[in-house]
Amino acid sequence: MEHKLPELPYAKDALAPHISAETLEYHYGKHHQTYVDTLNKMLPDSEFKEASLEDIIKQAPAGKLFNQAAQVWNHTFYWNSMSPKGGKDPSGDLGKAIDDAFGSADELRKQFNEKAVGNFGSGWTWLVVNKSGKLEVVNTDDAGNPLQDDLKPILTCDVWEHAYYIDYRNARPKYLEAFWQLVNWDFAARNFGG
């Protein structure tokens, strides 16, 4: 099975001024594309040549094949976690679940930011549904993905430096402020309800 770089759900300049078109040129156009290309080169000689990204993430041993598949999946999920019409506060069932788990959307943002800023090195910060059915914020390192631990991803923020270095240099907290202006709560609500 050949994997393709999915289309962005918006134009490359649509997230400006929070995330620039230049960042998307590199992050989506170069980094994400390279993960797809490398994965496709590895698959023909692999037992996972017909597997979905999710199956590779859940079943492949740690190593290069897992890393490529997870980074393809993680980045696609990340692009969809943002929208030019994003921000504000969540509503509906997801909003209620956030209030139940964290007390408020503001407290979720605070806890999420603390985890993301404290995520040492490269990785991802996720809002997930845990095994007891409650919302939780978790970090993964490198290409790690909550699917490995039977957690249900709702929303993610990429905290690898290539996600923010062009626009924010090494100021990860400033990047997180911008991220919350773009959060696609409709996408998160679909993941929560689906």
From TrEMBL:
UniProt keyword Metal-binding, yes or no: yes
One annotated GO molecular function: superoxide dismutase activity
Start and end residues of each Manganese/iron superoxide dismutase C-terminal domain: 90-190
PROSITE patterns tied to this protein: SOD_MN
Manganese/iron superoxide dismutase N-terminal domain location: 2-83
Keyword list, A-Z: Iron, Metal-binding, Oxidoreductase
Keyword Oxidoreductase: yes
InterPro entries linked: Mn/Fe_SOD, Mn/Fe_SOD_BS, Mn/Fe_SOD_C, Mn/Fe_SOD_N, Mn/Fe_SOD_N_sf, SOD_C_sf
EC class of the enzyme, as a word: oxidoreductase
Swiss-Prot/TrEMBL catalytic activity: 2 superoxide + 2 H(+) = H2O2 + O2
Binding residues for Mn(2+): 27, 75, 158, 162
Signal sequence, start to end: none
EC code(s) of this entry: 1.15.1.1
GO cellular component: cytoplasm
Job description of the protein: Destroys radicals which are normally produced within the cells and which are toxic to biological systems.
Similarity comment text for this entry: Belongs to the iron/manganese superoxide dismutase family.
Protein name: Superoxide dismutase
Lineage: Bacteria, Pseudomonadati, Pseudomonadota, Gammaproteobacteria, Methylohalomonadales
